[in-house]
């Protein structure tokens, strides 16, 4: 896995164009996580350092608004079952 940082090229300045973003990629180069946009590259890199330091310390919490929590199924924002594999 590896982190990738990039500058957003689409949209407008008010929707993040030109801002820095990060994504976490798996060994097969698929995106498995991503974050919000940051005006400063240093802020984007700071968040990556924070994530790296948390390794295994962050608990997994159940979304209480979700009627079903049975991985790999997921819930939509209205609590309905959104899909399964």
Can you offer a commentary on this structure?
It holds the Pfam family DUF1508. InterPro entries: DUF1508, YegP-like_sf. It comes from Pseudomonas bijieensis. The structure is a single chain. Helix content is 16%, strand content 25%. By secondary structure, the protein is α+β, with helices and mostly antiparallel strands. It has a domain at 2-53: YegP-like (Double Stranded RNA Binding Domain), CATH 3.30.160.160. It has a 3-stranded antiparallel beta sheet, covered by helices on one side. The protein has a two-stranded antiparallel ribbon with strand order 4-5. Residues 81-85 have low confidence and may be disordered.
Brief write-up:
By secondary structure, this protein is of the alpha+beta class.
């Amino acid at each position: 896995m590896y982190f990738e940082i990039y500058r957003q090229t689409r949209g407008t300045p008010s929707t993040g164009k030109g801002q820095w973003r990060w994504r976490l990629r798996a060994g097969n180069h698929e995106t498995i996580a991503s974050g919000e946009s940051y005006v400063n590259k240093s802020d984007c890199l700071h968040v990556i350092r924070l994530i790296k330091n948390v390794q295994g310390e962050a608990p997994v919490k159940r979304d209480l608004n979700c009627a079903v929590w049975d991985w790999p199924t997921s819930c939509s924002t209205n609590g309905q079952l959104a899909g399964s594999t």
